[in-house]
């Protein structure tokens, strides 16, 4: 084969490959469109104000997600501060105080490995440690503690990156004015890093709000027809209510599940949107 | 001679050796801040690092908590069930009589799901990564990447719903002998779930290949395809393989999709159209029932959890090792 013919073949191979790669990319997007389309088709007719304000029921027409909605809200309200404080503190320690050495390396490696532990294993930990071990029972608090440990690695990594992105010149300026290390961190580093840390925290929370398996493990899957009033009350959350409906054979409950999924996806989407807006608004250039 | 009478200069000249205990004492009692300030930091500077360290140790305690919990209950399990029954039996039926405790049916189910999911996600994910890093314009990439992020953020219970109510009927329309709960539907959807992970991690690895290497190849007259396959992919191979291993590890630990769509029938089969059970789905099945504390069924979730934890931990370590060990230096 002479060079000119080979060139034609090579150019064609390139064009075909470009098409194949493009189609592969579009496949992921197509699945997303089909998935959302199927869920809207199944669930939209069932979505109503009553659906949001009714408790679950054996009669599909009367069933709603009030207890699940409030359960998710409670869970987030307890998980977010715990995970945020622990995560940011860990990140500050690792970035600002830790000297390179054995302990620091162990903590760092450990955080990366924790991020890869299947969520259901956190459920087993939560069940053993919080539900039975310290006797919190199948409560919102036990769920929140479990969830906080689960999302902790995400927040730590996000906060570390945010803190690392604060230029050293700012720290030096602060030291030059006589500030101590903690004053520098609290008044200079943290305010500069805060928007990115919050973005990471919101993303971690959107992971937590969709998690199902660990909460099933700690026993949040009971028929709940009330709204939790204290952290020690039993609870259910949106994904678990959805799972509950999906596992029933009757078609009507599947539609309820789809309607629940629409609510869940709207919550997630607005959280992601907030994160993006936060990032865009406060993105600083030094 | 009381130290307070000395000017700081003189005191410095005296040096540390000369500063006797008596001098220190005097400095303390008179409240002279000169000696003290050098020795003691303000309270916040001494206490806060310790508090922060304590917070950082929480993650260590979490890992230790997981290991200890799993280990203690696993030992309790093996005091009742011989290890040989766990390793060599081919049936897994802890929830009904006669009880069998062979782990293989659960492992087989888990690996079937992982292999099919990998067969979907790895090639498509890599192709997506190549498209995004080598072919797509900046504008196209800015549109597609966030969409993939949305795909990655969808809760797995939603994917489970999708598998059961959309993919399964589709498969049954083509292959009517398929069960309502089947491994194929769950695996395909697990594949879709891990696809964004493969795509984005592989793309990260490929984007970090320096431009100069591509331009060298272009200068020799290479096409885009040749640059992608013969220069960029080999250069980024460690990162790409690490992303594959991580994604497969994620597939092994995935719970809700397989619980909803793959059924609860632990069996040794190679037929993906049948119902199977994975390790994660078994754990959920037990915790849905009201298993009393201390029974053998109760301990069995810890054994399965331990197996799951060890397998995924080894894979995560492998991925990190590959990424570090085989990283090309430019």
From TrEMBL, chain B:
It is a multi-pass membrane protein. The keyword Transmembrane applies. SUPFAM superfamilies: MetI-like (SSF161098). One of its GO terms (molecular function) is phosphate transmembrane transporter activity. The chain crosses the membrane at residues 47-72, 102-135, 147-171, 183-206, 227-248, 299-319. The keyword Transmembrane applies. CDD domains: TM_PBP2 (cd06261). InterPro entries: MetI-like, MetI-like_sf, Phosphate_PstC. Residues 107-319 form the ABC transmembrane type-1 domain. Keywords: Cell membrane, Membrane, Phosphate transport, Transmembrane, Transmembrane helix, Transport. GO terms for biological process: phosphate ion transport. GO terms for cellular component: plasma membrane. It is found in: Cell membrane; Membrane. Its main location: membrane. It holds the Pfam family BPD_transp_1. Part of the binding-protein-dependent transport system for phosphate; probably responsible for the translocation of the substrate across the membrane. Belongs to the binding-protein-dependent transport system permease family. CysTW subfamily. This is Phosphate transport system permease protein.
């Amino acid at each position: 084969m002479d060079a000119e013919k080979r060139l034609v073949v090579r150019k064609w191979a390139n064009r075909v490959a470009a098409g194949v790669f493009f189609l592969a990319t579009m496949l992921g997007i197509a699945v997303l469109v089909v998935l959302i389309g199927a869920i809207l088709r199944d669930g939209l007719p069932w979505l109503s104000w009553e659906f949001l304000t009714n408790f679950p029921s054996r009669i599909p027409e009367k069933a709603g997600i009030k207890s699940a909605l409030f359960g998710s809200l409670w869970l987030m309200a307890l998980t977010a501060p715990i995970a945020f404080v622990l995560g940011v503190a860990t990140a500050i320690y690792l970035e600002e105080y830790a000297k390179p050495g054995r302990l620091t390396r162990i903590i760092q490696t450990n955080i990366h490995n924790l991020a890869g532990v299947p969520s259901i294993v956190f459920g087993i930990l939560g069940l053993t440690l919080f539900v039975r071990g310290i006797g919190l029972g199948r409560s919102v608090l036990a769920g929140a503690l479990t969830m906080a440990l689960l999302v902790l690695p995400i927040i730590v990594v996000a906060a570390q990156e945010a803190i690392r992105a604060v230029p050293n010149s700012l720290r030096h300026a602060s030291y030059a004015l006589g500030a101590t290390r903690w004053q520098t961190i609290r008044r200079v580093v943290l305010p500069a890093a805060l928007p990115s840390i919050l973005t990471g925290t919101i993303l971690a929370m959107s992971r937590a709000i969709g998690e199902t398996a660990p909460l099933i493990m700690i026993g949040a899957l009971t028929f709940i027809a009330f709204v939790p009033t204290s952290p020690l009350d039993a609870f259910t959350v949106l994904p678990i209510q959805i799972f509950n409906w999906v596992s029933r054979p009757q078609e009507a409950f599947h539609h309820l599940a789809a309607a629940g999924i629409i609510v869940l996806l709207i919550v997630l989407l607005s959280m992601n949107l907030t994160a993006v807006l936060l990032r865009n608004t406060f993105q600083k250039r030094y | 001679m009381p130290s307070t009478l000395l000017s700081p200069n003189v005191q410095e000249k005296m040096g540390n050796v000369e500063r006797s205990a008596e001098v220190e004492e005097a400095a303390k009692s008179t409240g002279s801040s000169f000696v003290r300030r050098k020795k003691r930091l303000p309270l916040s500077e001494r206490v806060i690092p310790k508090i922060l360290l304590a917070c950082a140790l929480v993650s260590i305690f979490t890992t230790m908590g997981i290991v200890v919990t799993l280990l203690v209950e696993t030992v309790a399990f093996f005091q009742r069930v011989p290890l040989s029954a766990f390793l060599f039996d081919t049936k897994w039926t802890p929830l009904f009589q006669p009880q069998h405790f062979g782990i293989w049916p659960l492992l087989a189910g888990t690996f079937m799901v992982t292999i099919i999911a990998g067969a979907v996600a790895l090639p498509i994910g890599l192709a997506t990564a190549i498209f995004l890093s080598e072919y797509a314009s900046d504008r196209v990439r800015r549109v597609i990447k966030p969409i993939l992020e949305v795909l990655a953020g969808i809760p797995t219970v939603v994917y489970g719903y999708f598998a059961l109510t959309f993919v399964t009927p589709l498969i049954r329309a083509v292959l009517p002998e398929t069960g309502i709960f089947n491994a194929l539907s769950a695996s395909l959807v697990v594949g879709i779930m891990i696809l964004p992970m493969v795509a984005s991690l592989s793309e990260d690895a490929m984007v970090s290949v320096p431009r100069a290497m591509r331009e060298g190849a272009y200068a020799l007259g290479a096409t885009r395809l040749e640059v992608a396959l013969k220069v960029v992919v080999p250069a980024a191979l460690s990162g790409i393989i690490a992303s594959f291993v991580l994604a497969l590890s994620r597939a092994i630990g995935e719970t809700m999709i397989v619980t909803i769509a793959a059924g609860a029938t632990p069996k040794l089969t190679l037929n993906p159209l049948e119902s199977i059970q994975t390790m994660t789905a078994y754990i959920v099945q037990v915790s849905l029932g009201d298993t009393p504390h201390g029974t053998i069924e109760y301990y069995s979730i810890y054994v399965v959890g331990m197996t799951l934890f060890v397998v995924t931990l080894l894979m995560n370590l492998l991925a990190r090792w590959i990424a570090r060990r085989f990283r090309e230096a430019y």
